[in-house]
Description:
Helices cover about 25% and strands about 20% of the residues. With about 120 residues, it is an alpha+beta fold. A hairpin with a 2-residue loop joins strand 2 (about 75-80) and strand 3 (about 80-90). The protein starts with 9 loop residues before the first strand and ends in a 5-residue tail after the last strand.
Amino acid sequence: MLGAMSLTAISIRPLVNEDLPRLVDWFNRPHVYERWGRRAASDGLGGPGSEAATLAQVEAQYGATAEDRPAGPYVIELDGRAIGYIQWYPTADEPKYAPRSRSPTRPPSICSSARRN
């Protein structure tokens, strides 16, 4: 006999300006800023206390991304609920990431709101 089944839907949609407040929240979560925050990267956003990302900072860095940026900025959704951010861009524009990339033209970069166990 089969047990209960639960189907989930994962989708990826383009980032829009209405997502920017959510990015502020995500960038200020410890498991995100430890990897992508101000202390982890020269262009990072987020951190504890006075290092916390603000909406103005996220708008400056990602506002144009939402509709115009050549990078592929997307929001990952699970059953219609936003759970993460993913983007890609040509490694020629970001040579420091090229050695870690499997693709010479479009490596993924992920910022997830999900907590690690």
